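User: Sequence for RAB3 GTPase activating non-catalytic protein subunit 2 below. Tokens please.
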Amino acid sequence: MACSLVPFCHFQDLEAARDFLCPHLRQGSAAAGAGSARESKPSNWEDDGWGAWDEAEMQEPVKEEEESTSKSQTSYWLQGCVLSLSPTNDLMVIAREQKAVFLVPKWKYSDKGKEEMQYAIGWSGSLNVEEGECVSSALCIPLASQKRSSTGRPDWTCIVVGFTSGYVRFYTENGVLLLAQLLNEDPVLQLKCRTYEIPRHPGVTEQNEELSILYPAAIVTIDGFSLFQSLRACRNQVARAAASGNENVQPPPLAYKKWGLQDVDTIVDHASVGIMTLCPFDQMKTASNIGGYNAAIKNSPPAMSQYITVGSNPFTGFFYALEGSTQPLLSHVALAVASKLTSAFFNAASGWLGWKSKHEEEPVQKQKPKVEPATPLAVRFGIPDSRRRGESICLSPCNTLAAVTDDFGRVILLDVSRGLAVRMWKGYRDAQIGWIQIVEDLHERETEKMDFSPFGSTQGPSRVAQFLVIYAPRRGILEVWSTQQGPRVGAFNVGKHCRLLYPGYKIMGLNNVTSQGWQPQTYQICLVDPVSGSVKTVHVPFHLALSDKKSERAKDMHLVKKLGALLKAKSSNLDLVEAEVKELIIDIKYPATKKQALESILASKRMPLSSLTNVTQTLMDALKNLEMECVDEGLLQFCSNKLKLLHLYESVSKLNSLDVQSETSFSDDDMAKLLRLDEKEFARLKTLLENYKQENVQTTVRFAEDKDGILPVKTFLEYLEYEKDVINVKKLDEVEYVALGSFFFWKCLHGESSTEDMCHTLESAGFSPQRLLALLLSVWLSKENDILDKPQSVCCLHTMLSLLSKMKVAIDESWDSQSVSPWWHQMRMVCIQSENNGAALLSAHVGHSVTSQITDSIAGKKFSQTIVGSDTDSWEALSLDTECWKLLLKQLEDCLILQTLLHSKVSKRAAKVSSLQAEPLCRLSVKKLLDGGKGGFADSVAKWVFKQDFSPMILKLAHQSRETESAEEAAEISSCVSLEEPEVQAGLEKILELLRLAYQQFPCGLELDVLHAHCCWEYVVQWNKDPEHPAGAYIHVTVLGIALMMWNTFVVKRLSAATYLMDKVGKAPKDRLCRRDVGMSDTAMTSFLGSCSDLLQTLMEADVSSDEMQAPVLDTEDAWVSVEGPISIVELALEQKHIHYPFSLKTVKPLALFDSKGKNSFFKDLTSIQLLPRGDVDPNVLSARQQFLTKVVSAAVQAQCSSPRGKDGLEEVPLLSERYEDWPALAVDLAQHLQISEDVIRRHYVCELYNYGIDHLGEEAILQVHDKEVLASQLLVLTGQRLAYALLHTQTKEGMELLARLPPTLCTWLKAMVSSAGQDIPPLLVNESFVTAFNGGGFAPLECLLFTKGLNNSFLSPVACM
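Assistant: Structure tokens for RAB3 GTPase activating non-catalytic protein subunit 2:
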């Protein structure tokens, strides 16, 4: 398929448009001119008679020349007109001087009776408003519809016309003037438009819509959105004016930018590339060119608009306008409309606009608006050529290339981003140029799912090719060229009088959202032929971009696509598919394409192994039959390697399909002998593995089709590759590596396949022993559960390892027993890094056994040569590898025991488990323990203790020997853990056994104090993550350094926040404030403050006892002396300094109890020395302290009085609550430290006890008061309150009589006691304690007064008795 020139529209009456625009070319005027010429000649026959034939012969050439001249003028009239075609093909404008014709397409029948689209004149008239102005440029811009039901057609088309007067006017399809704008007083040279395009790639900058206007020394760009809104408003106003009459409305102003182009002599045409961003290198290069060596650049490259001009000096100029460097100007436009009988007049600050009906109104004299000055914009760089003058420039659709024509008849292709000329065509004088962008058509994609943007579909981006179209009018040829360096792909003879139209834009008013559902039928380029009266477009197939040297490659790619479709198709006849595949791959020419095709065949899931082998063999035979010079060695080697892998796959599959069952069964004695273990060691190993298996049960989901030892051939070929006759395994993840190893060894490890045949097959195929050992160990370690269920696999592993060790390059022949073999070192490193400790321990025992066997055989040969006939069966050869195996076995056994402990847990827990405790523990390996430092063992156990939430007592009980365990200890175990279910007890005994076993393996790493320290630290770390979780279980068992580290790292910040919050609020803060400032709830903060008190008490006790105790020595087990890693917590704790104790208090407003020095000493490092207050204390501070302590005592006594009132109305004796009994003593103790008199607090305590009716406690507290006289004066007030309540509120007959006999002074005093109480005093009895208080305080006058007045009744009977 080649290029084609397809007509899509014809002109209905192009001569009428020509006659209107060019009256001098009318046929009538030409005929009249010819007739007048004939009439001027003599007509008598005498003059014409003789020699008439001769004259006729002489006049024939003259007539032919006149006809040709007239015909040429008639045909070339279109070259002198301004043409513009809408990209949607709904409007064409032809303008010349002051006149214009608007052509609209209509469907009509042609002369042949065929329906076709024809252009008909829709409007014609004069466009000039100013005297002497002419049309210099025109554009037809389709505007998008705002209706949701639009199917892609534009709402209407606006005609933009530029004049030589500098005005730019906008019209409707009917010739109605919408608005006019004078942006510069120079003639308009060019109008160009840019509309929205969906970016092809994510990194491409979206370009804004704009209309650019070129003047001789300036460029004006109007924002597309502003223009779109203004045009819609003006058109709506015109429609309303036509229906309702004159109406003035102010439309939205136009936003535009005006740049004054400098350093250019002449500008003829321009191209607005749009917004671009330089890469960092270009940014630095540009900054250096402009600012010199010391130029500074910004962190991010600035965005700028790029403009390219053509003209002279320079021939091509590149301008860059920084975005945001200048504010856009706003034009003040006015809109006025008039009816058919009235004229319209518009006058505004910077523009005018009008509407006329067929220009019937008289021109009105008006003053030109003010023109805004341009912003200077200097040329950044250009292509200097003093003799060359540019004529036009055309930007490619992707904004990367531009084609420029000049007066030398050249067409130059520019790289827009680099500013370089990349190609030149000669011999194209007066050329007209345009672009065609073709998107690759992928037939397999459904049309419904196609993305209607010009850049492909949603299923994947299609390739895009650009073609340059050049029309040479002097030669009458239209050519299509492939860019950038492609050949000419099409040429057409079209005549010398055509016009090539390339809009370069589409529909205005779209965006990234509205453009998704649009299906605009736009034409990229068209050729107007005035002779034939047709409009044609160019169709270019995409494959022409792959023409010339790439044609064979294009054919090969077509065959590859056909091959891919064949491999995807479902067919039951595999032989037929195999034959077609062979034929296709033989037909492909290029070796690289052949390799690509073979790779796609081998990656097919539908092709069986036999077909793959046959196709590969066929291709290899075809390559061998070619001449040596034509054979591609790389492709031949590739086929050979793939064929070898296919044969290997076939051999391994056959071996795995053979069902070989081992007849011999191994007993425990045979297994122990094979592993070189005695009966006790083998029993211990078996017990450890059984415990490990019970505690490490991992449930996994497996499907029926996921069988071990099965690997598809496609996957097999993807995993392996040949290189110099050696098979290498590609970089695979762990699952893929295990799958490949299972394909080779899984059947062998189960005894279902021949181990010797498998090793021989793999060795002959090109596998190295080291690679086979790695594959074998990966399978063994990953299938731990299956391995532990089948002890028979240990014997298979021993056999397999022995066979691998006997390969040629496995163990170096120069290996000495006193050096480490790389072969065994590789195996040990795999076991060290494995987290499957059970399988690793078994493989280490097998490795140790095989190593000892090989070492003994080598030593036996050497020893037999020196000593002949001696008995050497009981001897064991020593080697460095054997000792390394013994060390590894001890480490793996320790790791296995520790792993078993960490995975053990109590079956059911009654307490609620937090989210932190529910997180699983990571699995251990020897590598992790070696890198975890000396505290790695205790740290792992501490994490497990936190998950299980065990108390310190369990750890302590597990440290005791099994012989000393008694029934009392068992009872203590059940009480130290809050468990409810009976099933827990059995699980707890199992955990104690595992703990004792771990203590035996790690006597130093799991020493009790070390373990307690790590547990305490783990709890506080987890508490810091979740402060709602309690963390005080291990505070009392911690050491000094750990407590100090806890205080400085986690506690002091939250404690200071809580203290400042309480000091700010002045009371117990609410839950919301606690969570905001402290990060915990109010209930959790109460527990936190109590834990802080316990921690400080522990700190003081530990600091006192630390002077009497020696620093502990941290040892490490012999098997773990090579541990490396971070310093342990215990080592950091031993490095902590001694504590300096400033006094601290936590209460409602604690900071108010101290002066500035005391406040500054809070929340500092406990090891630092602070300046504490000395000498006299401020009386205000002492008053605040005394008031605080009295409030504490009052609140404690109030909380103690918790008994309810009895049913008979009598008051029961208040009971003491145990949780509040220590508060008064604490207040007295604090009074001594706060320099407050202790007797004041004691007297207040006594008064509060009597005030709340707790007389029996008040009687005891009186004994501790020293100043009895002051206490008696305080108790007198309470006595008066009780008497006043009994006499004045009881209102009994006896009470009224007694009150009547009292003197006025005493009555007044009793009434004053009622008012001073502020509330009703409860009817408490005046018991003997009051009497004792009065007697001790010297209140005999009051007693005598009462007796003399006759106050002797039941209420005061105890007093009377005294």
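The mean pLDDT is 76.
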